[in-house]
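Local shape tokens

___
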Amino acid sequence: MFACCTEASSASAQQVDTISLEAAAEATGVIPKQDEEAPPIIEDLARKDAEDQVKVEEVQQQPETGEVPPKPEILDISLDKGDTMLGMALDLKAKGIHVLRIGQGAVERYNASVQDAEERKRIQPNDFIVAVNGARSNTDMVKVMKSEAILNMKVLRAVPATVTLSKAGRKLGCNLTYQEGQSIAVDITDISEGAISAYNQGVTEPMQIKNGDCIASVNGVSGSGAKIVEEILNAENLKMSFYRVELCNAVMKEQ
């Protein structure tokens, strides 16, 4: 795991629940091939070991504008995995499990069974799995997906929110974490004094950036956690789109 720390101290980034790649392979029956340029779709729940963390110092930013995030949709999905793999590439985030890709397996079969008129009920990339058979922590959800055939899942479909920040000689005031070579979104954790906190003071609560939000793109750069962080470090003005997972959790509590 890479952790981009906006502080010069040795404080480590916030850790999240993890599962080893070996355990994921056991759960899915698929073992990744290291000699292929494009590895097969697997339930790639990579470990986030503290020794893999790399800290770099960021320049912070002065916020300018923000956009109120839309309310996310919660889908109740029930599927029969049977004795096959789910067929999803997944990334454990600070809050929930991020769906990266969908390949052959139980999820693909489930999606094919959903009528076109109800296609929104199909599981899609960039959905967040937040509960499986009542389990809500990442570790417990992974155990359930591994051991049980019938899966009743709560899936959050969040529309990215957007804010624009300009650098003003300060640090961002948070840690940015992602899985190298895997994550397509970057976790915001450990928000402290800096540009983000200054931005939060000037906007209403629904527009605030919070711990657990996932940056999906910066200045149009997307698809790679490393490239997103590189853009944050190098660009003077930042237009960030991110999934407001904290807002998704609030919607969950309403149900």
Observations:
- The longest strand covers residues 161-170.
- The first helix runs from residue 21 to 28.
- The helical segments are 21-28, 106-113, 138-147, 195-201, 225-234, 245-254.
